[in-house]
Every structure is written in C-alpha cells, then in structure tokens.
Amino acid sequence: MAPTEKIASIDDTVLLKCKPGGSRWRGAVWEDQSAGFGWLIAAGQRTAGARDDFYRQLCDRCTRKRTTLNQAGVELAPGKRTYSKHLLPDRDDQLRLDAERSYQLLQEARASVPQLIKEARENAGTPVRGEVFGTAVEAFVYRAVGSYDELYLGLRVVGSAPNGVHYMILQLAVPEAEAGEWEPIEAPHRPGESGEIFYFTLLEVPKLHG
After folding, report:
1. Around 174, how many Cα atoms within 13 Å sit in the side-chain half-sphere?
2. What is the pTM of this model?
3. SS3 assignment, position 87
C-alpha cells in the first residue's frame, strides 16, 4: 500500500505512514517531490500505548532533537514542536542510491546485450534493436563464408548515459574482442541516423557461435 496518511505527531516535516500488510512493522516515508519517489527514513514496530511504540519513539526522538538545537542557539522555524530534518536523505544517501541504480543497470545490460548479439547472430542479415544505458543499440551480423563473421553495432545515445557508454556496450557485446579490434565504420545496410556511430569487428566463427 502506498503511504498516504500523515504522521500527525511530526509537525516540522510532512512524513507519511507506511503500513506493510499483515505486520506490526511501520515506517516513516518522506516524499522527494523533485525526484518523484519516497524515502523510508525510519522504521519500527507498532504497539499502541506502549513506550516502545514506533510512532511514540519517533515523536520523542524528534522532540528531543529540537530541544537540543534550541539549546544550542540554532535558528529554527517558530511554532513547531519537532525537528525531523536530520532524518532526511543526505548526500551520502543520494550517492548510495546512484551507485545502486548504476549496479542495477549494469546487471540488466550484462543480460540484455549478449542476448541482442545472440538474436542478431540467429537472424543474420536482419538488424536487431534494443536499448541499454540510455543508448539505442542495433546489432547486425553478416554471415561470411570462411572463418570469420562480420558484426556491426550501431550505438546512439537517446537519454542520459554514463561516461564511456560505447566502450561498456562493446565490451559486454563481445568480451573476447579487445577495444582496438573495433573500429567506427559506415553501416553497409543503411545510412546512420543522427548521432549514431556504427562499430565493426571481425570475429572468428567459434568466438561468435561457441
């Protein structure tokens, strides 16, 4: 269930109740309006009327924090009883989130890019398209007679993409190929689109088909 009910005892910041179904666990969620999602900033167990009730402890904690800041002479918005901003995500939290997102993208790319090459190999002569790391990828294989196949990869940034995204995709596409074995080239089957670069390499058939 999406958190919608405000925690009334916290009056300096809008925190919403998170209530997992069938559980005594409760959470406090702060919605990051600019990012469009919420952060779980505190959690504990709900025991109505008990001293260790999550909501009671959260209120006591934020009340004590405000008292401490007042005694230290910190200027705070008047008319409030609690201070919960110290629980909100900081720069370290954002860096952790960015790292976790990057890792998730990498894991997805490790699965999707080889699959794209596999489909292009199985459908030689037909472009196979996908998107990874905010980059449009088109794979195209010419089945050559002899010991080598020709592999073309068209890469075009279509959104936000990490630095070195082309190299990352090429490495995931064919781990056996060194960076120097790829070269930018005109695609033989169609003109390149705006911002698109095609890379070409020759692969020994056992490398591609093994």
Report:
1. 29
2. 0.71
3. helix
Residues recorded for the chain: 210
Which H or E run contains 106?
helix 91-122
Ordered strands of the 16-18 beta sheet:
16-18, 25-32, 37-45
**What is the DSSP-derived secondary structure letter of residue 73?**
T
Give 25-43 pLDDT, tens digit per residue. Answer: 999 999 999 889 999 999 9
pLDDT for 107-136, tens place per residue? 999 999 999 988 988 888 888 999 998 899
Cα distances (angstroms) measured from residue 178 to each of 41, 68, 106, 172, 175? 45, 59, 19, 11, 8
Cα–Cα dist 124/117, whole Å = 10
CA atoms of 157 and 146, how far apart (whole Å): 34
The beta-carbon contacts of 169-175 under 8 Å, at least 24 apart in sequence, are 169/109, 169/113, 169/132, 169/133, 169/135, 169/137, 170/199, 172/109, 172/110, 172/113, 172/114, 173/113, 173/114, 173/116, 173/117, 173/139, 174/117, 174/201, 174/203, 174/207, 174/208
Q: Are 58 and 7 in contact (CB under 8 A)?
A: yes
